Amino acid sequence: MILNKQNSNYSPHKWFQRLTAVFLVSSILPQSTVALAQVQEGKSSEITNQASYSYTMPVGRGNYTFEGTTRKVSVKPVRLIDPFGQVLGCNGKPLSDYTGFSMGLYEPNPSDPTGTELGKLVSLTSTELPDILNNKIARGIEPNDSNINPFPLTNADKGTYSFLLDPNKGQTDPGRIYILVINPPQNSSYEQRRIKIQILESTGQINNSVIRYIATSLDGEPISSTGKTSVESTVVFVPNAETVGLDLFAFEFSTLMCEPNQIQIVKTGDRVVAEPGDTVIYRLTLKNTGDANLNGLVVSDTLPLGFKFVDDSIRGELKGKSVTIAAENSSRTVTFQTDAAIPPGDVLNIAYAAQLTPDAVRGSGINSAIVNGQRADNGFRVKDGPATYQLKIEPGIVSDCGTLIGRVFVDKNFDGEQQPGEPGVPNAVIFMEDGNRITTDPNGLFSVANVLPGNHTGVLDLSSVPGYTLAPNHYFSERNSKSRLVRLEPGGMARMNFAVTPTSQEQNNETDQTR
Q1: Domain end call among 257, 275, 294
Q2: How far apart (Å, rounded) are the C-alpha atoms in residues 200 and 233?
Q3: How far apart are CA 27 and CA 50, in angstroms?
Q4: pLDDT tens, 220-240?
Q5: β-bridge mates for residue 125, sequence order
Q6: SS3 418
Q7: Is 216 exposed, middle or buried (0-12, 13-18, 19+ CB in 10 A)?
Q8: pLDDT tens digit string along 124-157?
Q9: Apex CA 214: angle with CA 213 and CA 219, to 5°?
Q10: Full domain range(s) for residue 286
């Protein structure tokens, strides 16, 4: 059979531009296929094919020649493209530079029950096959012509990628799971991204098949320009001219690479040391480090213990102009909100005042702030923090701390009070409820300053006073214990005394009571 191709729009280059029409004859390939056209989105063209034929056939004693022309066949382009994905920036547009970026398709680690850890790279079917019609080497679906894994991204292809799965290897069976990994270059501000892909359904139809899959972000970041972290899609795959008989399937979705820090918050104060009664001015600096306007800004600022937010002290400033800032004070957390949007590279300043109360001396002096917002172009959430600032708190002339005093003495008359002639016991040890260890002086006295108000307990360590035991109290039964409970008022003083007696005298006293 002789075929004479007449193609009004045919050129050798278009075959490689993914504008294909295929007429496969059984003498060339063992399997038959239908005519199909694939055009790249945004392109429009039409392919018209016509063939003339001539053949001789013996009939009786002679040979008869038959000639003719086939019916003209026109194939109009449809929106059927070789599926591919693309790595885009957070704004949904191609990155300025893809140098060093690569894509990898992995099996999940079989020993990981969550199915989120990486196993081995998926073994993909090579698509580098001979082109019979043109005597050249035809490659698979662009941009990953040879279907290699991993695949480096290039600026020429604007971050597009493709991985073809082979149904003959069971790679499109329902339930199969893959992990798509985007590796940024070293020392990049971008972080690695991982997307879990699960085949949900695979159905066969005449001359084509349908694959339904779901792609889910494993890092919680969006994988679509609409902000979704999970995308479900259906892809039809057909016999492709460039793969010459291989029925392969490719994922078709874009993955976004967002800068990890698109907003920055810094907190400062107008002083480093303060005392009760002082007023401190705090400043919050919010900088847009991304490439889109940021709005919906909310700052949560937690003040230290003893700091009181001063109403009507808020001031906002953006690009040299005043900005309205709303504040809501709940307990020690102040929430700031504004309708202003921060352009890329600009800074929003928020200033406010807080006054120190006497309780501030019991706090850490550290406050922290967190900012949340969203991109104006696609609504993606951004955040940063906590940003902290610490003040050193001095008690000044106002303090709510108190002082504990006491003594350990030899009680000769067992009334629990030290009388003239009742000496103190040196080097006796008292343990406080917070673990502090106190030792008496040569006169049996001890004191602890800067103690927080409230209830406090002290326990006498009898092993620190050998030869002595706890003296019985004939008047107050609650003092017949080696522990003392006292109530310390703010700025006040409380006493805890411990009465002891020589061990021999205690024994004699018990004998006298028996008689």
Answers
A1: 257
A2: 10
A3: 19
A4: 777 776 677 777 777 655 444
A5: none
A6: coil
A7: middle
A8: 888 765 555 554 444 566 788 788 899 999 999 8
A9: 150
A10: 263-393
